[in-house]
Amino acid sequence: MIKWIFIILALIGIDQVSKIWISSVLLEQESIPIITDFFHLTYTRNTGMLFGGFTGLATDYFWIFLIFAVLASAIFGYMFFKSDFKDKRLIVYRIALALLIAGSIGNAIDRAVQIDHAVIDFLDFRGIWEYIFNFADTFLNVGIFLFFIDVFFLEKKRLNANG
Q1: Nearest CA to 99 among 155, 132, 147, 51?
Q2: Hey, which residues are catalytic here?
Q3: Closest residue by Cα to residue 140 from 52, 48, 65, 76
Q4: The whole model's pTM is what?
Q5: pLDDT, tens digit only, all 163 positions of the chain
Q6: Other C-beta atoms within 10 Å of 126: how many?
Q7: What letter would DSSP give residue 49?
C-alpha cells in the first residue's frame, strides 16, 4: 500500500510543479507553441468548473468547490484503502482511484491557495479542441475512464471467476 501512496503523492507533485513552473515562465494568456497549430503551452486561470464552464463561480463560491473536492477525495480514498491490495485483479481499479484522488487533490490545492481560487491550466491541444487543461484534469478523466472500464467489464469477470 505504501507504494500506492507514493504514486498518488508523485502525481500530485507532477501536477503542482507543472503549474508552478508554467505560472513562473509565462504571463497569463501567453502561449508557447510546441507543435504549431496543434499543441501549445498556454497559461490560463480557470475560475469556472468543468471545461471552463460557469466562469467566475470559483471566486464567489470557492468553498463549495473546495468542499466538493475534499469530499470527492475522501470518497475515492475510502474506496481505495478498502480495496484488497493482495488481489492483483484490482490493479485497474486501484490505478483509477489513485488518479481520481491525485486529480481531485491537485485541483483542490489550486482552489485553496490561489488568490482568485482559480485552477491553473496550460495544456492546450488546439488542434483537437478549444479547452485548456492541466495534469490533474487529465488524471481525473483517465481515472473516470478506467473506473468505468473496471466497473462495467472487469468486475463482471472477477465475479464470474469467483463463481
Answers
A1: 147
A2: 121, 137
A3: 76
A4: 0.91
A5: 899 999 999 999 999 999 999 999 999 999 999 999 999 999 999 887 766 666 666 666 778 888 888 899 999 999 999 998 888 999 999 999 999 999 999 999 998 999 888 899 999 999 898 899 999 999 999 999 999 999 999 988 887 776 5
A6: 17
A7: B
